[in-house]
Amino acid sequence: MDKVTKEAVWNKLKEVIDFEIGLDVVSLGLIYDVQVDEKNNVYVLMTMTTPMCPLAGMIMQDAETKLREIEGVNEVKVELTFDPPWTPDRIDPEVRGQLGI
Predict the structure, then answer these.
(1) CATH number of the domain that 60 lies in?
(2) What three-state secondary structure class fits 8?
(3) Inter-residue contact 59 to 25 (CB < 8 Å)
(4) Which sequence ranges form a coiled-coil region, renumbered to this chain (predicted)?
């Protein structure tokens, strides 16, 4: 069994779009932690731009679905946190420039 890499997980997460903003969750800085254990179980700790995000469930489900597409992945757990709270400072600097922030 091939080892699932963190890089593969991060790349797959770039396919998960926050539909309200139209950008991926990685560029927005919504991913706080990625872990892959020796059994290819994947754990992702993420946040939303606001605790009131109406699409949080859909975005988390999309992340889980996309991560399960990685060959060799065993279990996937996507956990939501608001600690620390998200701020626009977490947005990728290149994307911030495109957004005029």
Answers:
(1) 3.30.300.130
(2) helix
(3) yes
(4) none
